[in-house]
Amino acid sequence: MRHSTRHIERHRTHRIGWLRAAVLGANDGIVSTASLIVGVAASGAAPASILVSGVAGLVAGAMSMAAGEYVSVHSQADAEQADLARERDELATDAAAETTELTRIYERRGLEPSLAREVARQLMAHDALGAHARDELGITEVTSAQPLQAALSSAASFAVGAGLPLAAAALAPRQGLIAWVSLLSLVFLATLGVIAARTGGAPVAVGAVRVTFWGALAMAITAGAGALFGGVA
After folding, report:
1. Of the candidates 52, 54, 50, which has an alpha carbon nearest to the alpha carbon of residue 62?
2. CA 43 to chain centre
3. For residue 144, what is the DSSP state?
4. What is the pTM of this model?
5. What's the whole-number average pLDDT of the chain?
6. How far, in Å, CA of 223 to CA of 112, rounded?
7. Given a cut of 90, is residue 54 above it in pLDDT?
8. CB–CB of 161/185 below 8 Å?
9. What confidence tens digit (pLDDT) does each residue in 138-174 have?
């Protein structure tokens, strides 16, 4: 009987781009919308005003996340393209110096000088710009900036996250609205922390506690502000 010698490895680095944007968006959606609802409710506002505030927070937050993420990641993409253009020019004008530069990089990583130069020579012959982008600049397909992907992921995940406390506010009884929204939002945050940790390969308990703590703190401070300024008004 033949046994397969194929070695299969499962890595998570390919998830970095969308995972970061999705977790950030969902977390921000839950925390900001739940805090907004709790703060407005603590001020003594009418149920209709509380829901309108939540809906407005959802729409504004999703658009803000999309715009902010797009601009931020696009700036990173612009910097990467500028570095690649500079590297392309250097390869065209002085390929020998670029080969030496790549050789020294491999030497610092532990290769013997002769082997390092041979590796650099072969990689330069195969894909010079790709070799320098990866080993000199640290730019790969996995880590390269994807502005549109980040913007859409952030906006969609924010809307989903914000919809959870908003739904809780719509269904909760008026007298217990703050308690219900706060409790359910903390459950949502803990669940998000667990999902993000499992997807990224991190400790589950740490991920859940981390997002839950900051969410609880945000809601508590916002509730205090709402009660304070609501009483003044």
Report:
1. 54
2. 33
3. S
4. 0.70
5. 84
6. 63
7. yes
8. no
9. 776 655 567 887 788 889 999 999 999 999 999 999 8
53: which 2 tokens? 């505030």
Spatial CB neighbours of 84, under 8 Å, sequence gap ≥ 6: 129, 133, 137, 139
Check pLDDT > 90 for residue 98: no
In sequence order, what E strands does the chain have?
Answer: none
Cα(204)–Cα(100) distance, integer angstroms: 45
How many angstroms separate the CA atoms of 199 and 12, rounded?
8
Which pair of structure tokens corresponds to residue 19? 């995972």
The amino acid at residue 192 is L
Count other C-beta atoms under 10 Å from residue 154's C-beta: 31
Q: Please tell me the distance from the alpha carbon of residue 10 to that of residue 132, in angstroms, as a whole number.
A: 26
CA distance 189 to 26: 9
| pLDDT for residue 8 | 47
SS3 3: coil
Amino acid identity of 12?
A: R
